[in-house]
Structure formats: structure tokens, C-alpha cells
Amino acid sequence: MSSTLLEVTRASHEEVERLERLVVKDLQTEPPTNKDRLHQSHRVRNMIEQVIDTTHKLVDIYEDKDGARKDEIAALGGQTATGTNVFSAFYDRLKEIREYHRRHPAARVIIDTGDEYEQLLKEEPQIEFSGEEGSGRYLDLHELFNEYINSKFGEPIEYTAYLDVFSQPQKIPRKAKSTRQYQEYLQKLLEYLVYFFERTEPLQDLDRIFSKVTSEFEEEWTMGKVEGWENNGQENGSAPENHTVIDLDYYSTAEELMVVGPEKLKEALRALGLKTGGTIQQRAERLFLTKNTPLEKLDRKHFAKGSRKPEQNCVVAAPQVGDDVKEIALLEAKIRKLCDLLDETIVRTRENVEKKQALTYEEMEAEREEDDVQAESESDEDDQQIYNPLKLPMGWDGKPIPYWLYKLHGLGQEFKCEICGNHSYWGRRAYERHFKEWRHQHGMRCLGIPNTKNFNEITSIEEAKLLWERIQERQGVNKWRPDLEEEYEDQEGNIYNKKTYTDLQRQGLI
């Protein structure tokens, strides 16, 4: 007996609700390690995909294109082929159920499948990472790096320098971007970054991100403000001036020029007014002639009938080439967006590479084994609950310190400092040490008081202010001394303090 359509609908709604509760329950748990975070994200992603699939099935049922749902509802109301008869419909259904159980006597009814759904929270999805990627902590761009340094648009640099350069394709000269090699390099780079991002951030909606990037790119391209391609596009669909279909400076022989393909060669020859027929090699040789020879000096036999010689080697780009340029610019925009999202990963990768350059092979292998053992031990320790009824502080090993050490250092005694924002310090040692730490120094600086030894053991703001006023009075900072600070001027315009002026006046000198 197959489930009725209405029962399938009810079960589908129940499944969606169960999965939604599991997603909430899973996200309420804070993963302790990076590996656990990846597992949690992929679990949630898988459950979301199940919800989407089930929802699509529900939509199909409610649309009822074949009328099966309508017929089933009518059958529940007793409508049969002979008319409306509730009892006849009931006994037909009862007969169907009995016949099913007669043919399947061992069939059981599952009442609660909650345990099966709870098992989803314990799954550890398999995520493939290379050895260089370190479970999603670092990028592995060695293959793309080799392609970059061996290309005409790249330059011979170190891998660490490449990690700073690959995210800035707009800095590559525009002439170097007109080759198919550069476009293929961008496609491979974007493909890797997308694959890495999907593995490390499965909950991000990459399609929505790229949709926004594309819409912003279209606006900037229309206005000619795309970074690295400023004023490249023109209104009314015309191509920019002084732009050639194929930049011959990047090809040393006609055989290399054959790589661009017959259609590109044909478009370039047509734009120059040259003949477009022949094999791909003949087209490449004909176009290669224009690299070192001006068009006006070429033999007339190379030109198509009815064409005239241009005055210079300046070819208006064909529409197909303009589309390729726009596609390259869009690839660069997507790569820049992904690099912004993976900025922290790029920084970690660069730091890791610089660290590994100072290690030998044996040290790198030992460090890798140590990381694996540490990750396993962390996961094992996280599963065990630490028994700490006295709420003792944790030691360096992540376990409570001994009680005798707790009593020896007086860690049960609390000291509060008003200058530190009523921050609590546990134990006399931590309390005495905090007077030289950044928090207390910042509080004193906000009060405008120098943090000297005179203010040790002072934790009240009022006491600190009173002590500072007394120190200033003792040093005579705020005391008015008229004999030294009151000024007098004689007839000649000389300025004296009161004591000097009085002495000179008594002597009759002024």
C-alpha cells in the first residue's frame, strides 16, 4: 500500500520542520576547532538542501497539474465513479488496506523517527583538501603560480610575492591581456577560488554574490570606470580608438599566432582589409606580415578586392573581440571579489609560506604530524566533560589547577579597580601586576594623571585625583608667586618681574 498523496504532503511538512529545528540546534553549538566548524557548516548546508528539495516536491503537489490531489480529496468525501457514497468509498479503502497487509505481513509502522534525524548532528562530512591547504586554512596556488611565471603576461617572482599579486589582475598591463592564455589563466584561477570557497564557506550564497558583482560591473563598464579597463567601453557599442584585434607584439612567429584560432585571424584580417581566405597557417603568415611592415608598404595582392590601404596599423576591434575583452574584465571583477572574501586566508597563507621557508623538510614533516595529533587530541578532549565543582581557574593544559595552588596564590580573593572600569582581579599577585598593565595605564591616561609609583595601590578615581592635586601643590605647579610671575615695565619698555623691578627702583637705577 503506497502512502496517499495527502499523507505524503503531511510527512513532507513534518520533515521540513524537523530539519529546521536541527539546523537551529546545530548552529547554537559553538564549534571549538576549525575542523568542527567546517563539519557544522557542511551539515547545515546539506540539511538546507534537503529542505529545498522537499519544498519543491510540496510545490508540485499543491500545483496539482495531474489532478491527483483533487481526486484524492474528492474520494475522502465519498465521491466515487457511481456517485457520492461515503460508505462505499470507506469499504473500498478498507479492502485496499487489508489486501496490502495480507501481502506484507511483516510490515511495521514507524511512529517516531526523531533518533534518525538526531544522527544528522553527529555526521562528519568528508571534505577533500590537499596537503598544502591544511584543512581549509591555506590556499594552494602552486600550479597557477607556475603558469603565471611562465606566461607572457606574468613575471619571474617568488611564490610569496605572487600571493600579493594574484588578487590584483587590474595591475597587469592591458596589452598583456589580449591573449587566450591570459583568459584561460583567469578561468582556472576563478575555478579554483570558487571550489575553495565552496568547501570552506558552504553557507555563503555564491550565486547571489556573483549576481551582485555582475550587475555592478555592467554599470561601471557602461560608464568606462571598471578598474584596469577605464574608458575601454564606448557608448553606442563602438570600440575604443587605437585598439587592435590581436596585439602582434606578443607573438614572435606566425606559428605562435596560429594559437588564437581561425576565426580571430579572419576578423583581424577583415578589419585590416586583407584577404581572409586560406588555411589557418596562411592567415597567420599574412597577418604576421603587418607586425614589422606598415600596411601602406604591403604588396597589393594581400589586400581584398575593393579595399583600400589604411594609413596606419590601427584596427578597429571586431564585436567578437569586444565581447572577449568584456568577459576578461568580468572574470577579473569576480576574482577580486573572492579575494576580498578570502583576505584572511590569503594573509594566513603568506605567513605560513614565510614560516615554512625557514624550516627543513624534517621539521615541516614533524610540524605536520604534531598538528594532526593536536587536532585529534583536541577533538577527544572536547568530548570529555571536565569535572570542576569548585570552579577553579584553568591551567595551561586546559584543566583546573590544583586546589592547594589555588589557596597558595589567594585566587579566591577578588580585587576591583575603579580606574580599570571596575574590572576584577583574582589574587594578590594579579592585582599588584595590573598597575603596570595596559588597562590601568589607559585609565590613568584618560584621567590626565601620569601612572607613577606614587599611585600604586590607588584604585579609586577620587583618591587618584586628590593625590594628584596634592602632588601638584607640593611641587608648586598651581601656586601663584607674584614676586617671580608679576611683571613690570620701565619707561624704556624693559620688562622685569616684581622682585627685580623693586630692587632697581630702590637703587635709583630706574
From TrEMBL:
- Which family does the similarity line name? Belongs to the SF3A3 family.
Give compartment(s): Nucleus
Has the keyword RNA-binding been applied to this entry?
no
Keyword Nucleus belongs to the record: yes
Matrin-type domain sequence ranges = 415-446
Region feature (Disordered): 358-384
Q: Where is the composition biased (Acidic residues)?
A: 362-384
Q: Which GO terms describe its molecular function?
A: RNA binding; zinc ion binding
Question: Which PROSITE patterns does the UniProt entry name for this protein?
Answer: ZF_MATRIN
What parts of the sequence cross the membrane?
none
GO process annotations (BP)? mRNA splicing, via spliceosome
Q: Which organism is it from?
A: Anisodus acutangulus
Q: Which GO terms describe its cellular component?
A: spliceosomal complex
Q: What protein name is recorded for this chain?
A: Matrin-type domain-containing protein
Keyword terms = Metal-binding, mRNA processing, mRNA splicing, Nucleus, Phosphoprotein, Zinc, Zinc-finger
